[in-house]
Amino acid sequence: MTEADGDDTSEYTDSYEDVSMFTLSDEREQTLLDTQTECTFMWSTRDGDPVGVIMNFVYLDGAFWLTCTRRRKRVPAIEARPRVAVAISSRGTNIGISQAVTYKGTATVLDDETTRSWFYPVLAAKVRPANPEAQAAFAAHLDSPGRVVIRIDPDARIGFDSEAMFANSPAGSTTSNV
């Protein structure tokens, strides 16, 4: 491939055109996954159109876990086409700006009582921390007929960390705590 084909192998020159080397460290990625409560969940329609919505999530045991009712159009779509993506950014958190990671993977729709019974309290604890009453109320609200849990098993990732990019840049750090 040539440079015109998109394979520029020249050294980085602080132009920010190729940011692929500025990925999240394992530690910062785990902090992002533990801290952020929302992700953008993406799938495709039967016509091949991409669609994405913001959803609460839990990352546990190497998988992403989300929930919605079976009546949502995304459920039959991912049952028919289980290749999906999840994107998470640090916006709205206190861990610094411009940290992001996108995962591609395979989704499975689960509607068994065993999965629902452990998942609802775990999700409620993540989105309603430090308030056991609110957690219990949220978990009870989720426990409705027709609700499913979506498990995404990721097999590819793209990470980005602006702190890594700006560390040696004239633009400087974006946060005081790297």
Structure description:
The protein is of the alpha+beta class. The chain has a single domain, classed as Roll (Pnp Oxidase, Chain A). Helix content is 27%, strand content 33%. It contains five helices and seven strands. It has helices spanning 26-35, 74-80, 113-127, 132-142, 162-166; strands at 38-44, 50-56, 58-60, 63-69, 83-89, 99-110, 147-161. It has a seven-stranded antiparallel sheet, sandwiched between helices. A hairpin with a 2-residue loop joins strand 3 (58-60) and strand 4 (63-69). The two termini are 37 Å apart.
CATH topology: Pnp Oxidase, Chain A
- pLDDT below 50 for ≥5 consecutive residues: which ranges? 1-10
Let me know the average pLDDT: 84
Structural class: alpha+beta
Strand order in the sheet with the most strands: 2-1-5-6-7-4-3
Key traits:
Pnp Oxidase, Chain A; 178 residues; alpha+beta; single chain; 5 helices
Short description:
With 178 residues, this protein is of the alpha+beta class. Helices cover 27% and strands 33% of the residues. A 7-stranded antiparallel sheet has the order 2-1-5-6-7-4-3, sandwiched between helices.
Blueprint (SSEs and pairs):
Blueprint: H1 26-35, E1 38-44, E2 50-56, E3 58-60, E4 63-69, H2 74-80, E5 83-89, E6 99-110, H3 113-127, H4 132-142, E7 147-161, H5 162-166
